[in-house]
């Protein structure tokens, strides 16, 4: 399953890129499992994704909880809690 | 009229309010948020999630129109670097009566703060840091659900 990953704010800065294409195995079924799997890509990924309590996610541009499925997803974004306005 | 815009250019207050007032409504309310000048911030930079941000702002505007029977609504949010005193966001609502216009305006800014994917980074004399989210913003948004 090919996924477009997007990272924002300090998640983007720590990982060192704002976008990458990944191909997780089929047993990666939720956002949380995807985060686990991404953490093994590099030390920078591991550092950025270490503290789940500080991470939020969107699947195909909709906010989701970390236990949400990624089945059928094309784009997954991981970022800190939002601070607009 | 619904206008939901994300832009790097400075926000044109007069043009935006004129567009909302052009609906001929009895009541127009607005809210503006600014980069603080009083706590040592040298520059504020806003990052966002292109595509999702515009969709969220438009969705919130549509929800406000349906809930308060608004005649017009504008939500304009700036991104990129900004100096202290500059306008970050402008929300304006037009309705038949003041309560609807004022309530819809509060709804839009409260929900924008928790639902729209923006991130603030502030630069001070001692360095730059990403601004942390505040629990009280979540509480303010929750009262509209």
UniProtKB/TrEMBL annotation, chain A:
GO molecular function, one term: nucleotide binding
Keywords in alphabetical order: Nucleotide-binding
SUPFAM superfamilies the UniProt entry points to: MoaD/ThiS (SSF54285)
Gene (name only): moaD
Cellular component GO terms, alphabetical: molybdopterin adenylyltransferase complex
A Pfam family the protein falls into: ThiS
Similarity section: Belongs to the MoaD family.
Naturally occurring in which organism (per UniProt): Sphingomonas desiccabilis
Protein name: Molybdopterin synthase sulfur carrier subunit
Gene Ontology terms: biological process: Mo-molybdopterin cofactor biosynthetic process
From TrEMBL, chain B:
GO function terms (MF aspect): molybdopterin synthase activity
GO biological process: Mo-molybdopterin cofactor biosynthetic process
Catalytic activity field: 2 [molybdopterin-synthase sulfur-carrier protein]-C-terminal-Gly-aminoethanethioate + cyclic pyranopterin phosphate + H2O = molybdopterin + 2 [molybdopterin-synthase sulfur-carrier protein]-C-terminal Gly-Gly + 2 H(+)
Entry-linked Gene3D superfamilies: Molybdopterin biosynthesis MoaE subunit
Transmembrane segments: none
Pathway(s) annotated for this protein in UniProt: Cofactor biosynthesis; molybdopterin biosynthesis
One protein family per Pfam: MoaE
Entry keywords, A to Z: Molybdenum cofactor biosynthesis
EC number: 2.8.1.12
Superkingdom per UniProt: Bacteria
Coiled-coil positions: none
Known function: Converts molybdopterin precursor Z into molybdopterin. This requires the incorporation of two sulfur atoms into precursor Z to generate a dithiolene group. The sulfur is provided by MoaD.
Similarity comment text for this entry: Belongs to the MoaE family.
Assembly and interaction partners: Heterotetramer of 2 MoaD subunits and 2 MoaE subunits. Also stable as homodimer. The enzyme changes between these two forms during catalysis.
Protein's name according to its UniProt entry: Molybdopterin synthase catalytic subunit
Lineage: Bacteria, Pseudomonadati, Pseudomonadota, Alphaproteobacteria, Sphingomonadales
């Amino acid at each position: 399953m090919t996924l477009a990953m997007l990272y924002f704010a300090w998640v983007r800065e720590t990982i060192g890129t704002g976008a990458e294409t990944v191909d997780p195995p089929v047993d990666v079924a939720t956002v949380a499992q995807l985060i686990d799997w991404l953490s093994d890509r590099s030390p920078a990924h591991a550092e950025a994704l270490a503290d789940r309590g500080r991470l939020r996610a969107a699947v195909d541009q909709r906010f989701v909880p970390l236990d949400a499925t990624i089945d059928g997803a094309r784009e997954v974004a991981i970022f800190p809690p939002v601070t607009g306005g | 009229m619904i206008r939901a815009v994300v832009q790097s250019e400075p926000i044109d207050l007069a043009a935006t309010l004129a567009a909302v007032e052009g609906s001929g409504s009895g009541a127009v309310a607005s809210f503006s948020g600014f980069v603080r000048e009083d706590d040592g911030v040298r520059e504020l930079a806003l990052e966002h999630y292109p595509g999702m941000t515009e969709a969220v702002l438009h969705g919130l505007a549509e929800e406000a129109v349906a809930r308060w029977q608004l005649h017009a609504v504008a939500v304009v949010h700036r991104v990129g670097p900004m100096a202290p005193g500059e306008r970050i966001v402008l929300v304006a609502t037009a309705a038949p009566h003041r309560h609807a216009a004022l309530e819809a305006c509060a709804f839009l800014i409260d929900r924008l703060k928790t639902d729209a994917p923006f991130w603030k980074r502030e630069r001070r004399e001692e360095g730059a840091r990403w601004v942390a989210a505040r629990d009280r913003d979540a509480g303010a948004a929750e009262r509209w659900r």
